[in-house]
Amino acid sequence: MNHKKSIVFLMLLIIPFIFISCCNCGSENETYLNGKIVVVGNEPFAKLALEIENNKLYILEGDELIIKELWKQQGNNYSVMYKQSRVESGLPILVIEKALPLSQEKK
Fold it and tell me: Which residues touch 56 (CB under 8 Å, ≥6 apart)?
């Protein structure tokens, strides 16, 4: 009888650990895109965007400090890390978490 209690106790202990170790709780996919920082639209509706190789544009949104710094980096190549993307009015929008310069030369 004592042996059965030990097995039940171990099973109750092991099963939650299996679920916890296989779960991606709270983690989101981080994705990187490389491209050139550009501005699209006319004032006062100009928006910051990332232009990738095939001339596809992604509107950039995110932390105010990152966006403010990227406004100064127009024409430079950057790698941006984003966790969210959506489409509004037919335009793809990336909510960026991080932006890293790829090179100092402007194209």
Answer: 92
For 35-67, the pLDDT digits (tens) are 999 999 998 899 999 999 888 999 999 999 999
Residue whose structure tokens are 């960026």:
96
pTM of the entire predicted model: 0.68
In the chain, what are the domains? Answer: 31-101 (2.40.50)
Confirm if 84 and 95 have CB atoms less than 8 A apart: yes
Q: How many CB atoms lie within 10 A of CB 35?
A: 20
d(CA 63, CA 97): 7
Task: List all residues 6 or more positions away from 37 whose beta carbon is below 8 Å from its beta carbon.
Answer: 48, 49, 50, 51, 60, 70, 73, 74, 75, 76, 77, 78
